[in-house]
Amino acid sequence: MKKTGKRIKKMLTALFFTALAASAAASLRGALPNAGAEAASETGRIATQQEPLAAASSANKSPERRKTVYTLLLAGVDEVSGNTDTILLGRLDAEARRMDFVSIPRDTYVNLPWSVRKINCVYAGTKASGQNGLEGLRSAVRSLTGFDTDCCAVVDLSTVKTAIEMMGGVYFDVPFDMDYEDSAQDLHIHIPAGYQRLDGEQCIQLCRYRKDYVNGDIDRIALQHDFLRAAAKQFISLGSIPNLSRVIQLISSSVDSDLTPANVAYFLRCALQCRAEDISFYTMPNVPADAGGLSYTFVDLAPWLTLLNDALNPFDAAIEPENLDVVYLENGAFRSTSGFIRDERYLYR
């Protein structure tokens, strides 16, 4: 899709490098306008802006933004590597009181001219090049989804740990004994199996644990989803979040984000108004494969498009393959929805 207007940006210092920005020009877009902070200060709601867009439909009708629907990108950054090993893309329907979250595996291949093309490297890699890491990550996710998220936040593990401590911990049924030592990654995990209250440090250890998983990172994501469901159910049943104002202040001051404190408060209030069964978690459909001498996960295109439109799309028009910049496997060969793979020889080295 061609863009017909300039995107209004909030608190943005630099664009992602030219190659990716050019490919992103063909995508659906939705973003927080500058007026969002003022609007949120009055109502606590997220302000969104939809630009005029060329249609993906056969009728050539411009897609419209669904009212009371907001999208957010959340990522957790590893303090040792600087990589965003946890990436969640969410959609909130405030009117229907429903939230859907999709995890993007950390090894997902992104169509960039880098030596390592894993999505978990984009945030740190963009910052290392002197550009805006938040916008770099947002742009990479846009290439996978076809639309811009309304807001984005990257949080470090120490902030998550402190926030969980403020909220009183999370009760969770740990499925097996977790014992792992890795001094290089500062991982010292010893959590017994069984239902128990986990403090902030244990919650972080649970989510970082990578041993004993048959399917590697995919199984780790599944456990993270179980943990997030348990946390959501716990706080929804309480009807409140302990020390909410302190948690909002911590999150607002400690993360790399374009969210205001009022935005954070609005999302948390909406979450508390949902039923636990109306908060769903998914994983991006993927196919593991080697490329450039490294192990990657590639988007499984057909089921990914279905999940995109069912759980994430904030517009009334369907997202089509041509709206994406995705490298995928077809009959054993690498293909691209954009028709262009950056330095295609990399894939076959």
Description:
The strands form 6 sheets. Strands 11-6-3-4-5-12 form a 6-stranded mixed sheet. A two-stranded antiparallel ribbon has the order 1-2. The chain has helices at residues 18-24, 36-43, 122-128, 133-145, 157-166, 200-208, 217-238, 244-254, 261-273, 301-312, and strands spanning 30-31, 49-50, 69-77, 84-93, 98-103, 151-156, 170-174, 178-182, 187-191, 194-198, 256-257, 279-283, 286-291, 294-299, 327-330, 333-336. It contains 10 helices and 16 strands. It is α+β, with helices and mostly antiparallel strands. 41% of the residues are buried. The longest helix has 22 residues, at 217-238. Helices cover 32% and strands 23% of the residues. Mean pLDDT is 82; it is low at 1-59. The protein is globular, with a radius of gyration of 20 Å. It has a domain at 18-150 and 284-348. Strand 4 and strand 5 form a beta hairpin.
